[in-house]
Automatic annotation (TrEMBL):
It comes from Pilimelia columellifera subsp. columellifera. This is DUF3046 domain-containing protein. It holds the Pfam family DUF3046. It comes from the Bacteria.
Length: 66
């Protein structure tokens, strides 16, 4: 997964403004207690980050984006 695909999925899941907030502020246990932005900065692959988002927000992520 490309980084642009990850951001597109985040925007489609949360809306553009809220997606940025989720990415910067929400600590996900699936990312070893890091935010999405921190995990990406640490070199975690975008697909791994997306899987963590799906696991953390199963009711929010549309089925077509899983």
């Amino acid at each position: 997964m490309r980084l642009t695909d990850l951001w597109d999925r985040l925007d489609r899941t949360f809306g553009p403004e809220y997606a940025a907030s989720v990415a910067a502020d929400q600590v996900l246990p699936q990312l070893d207690g890091r935010t999405i932005v921190a995990a990406l900065d640490a070199g975690v692959p975008a697909v791994t980050v997306w899987r963590a988002v799906v696991a953390a927000y199963p009711d929010r992520v549309p089925g077509r984006l899983r």
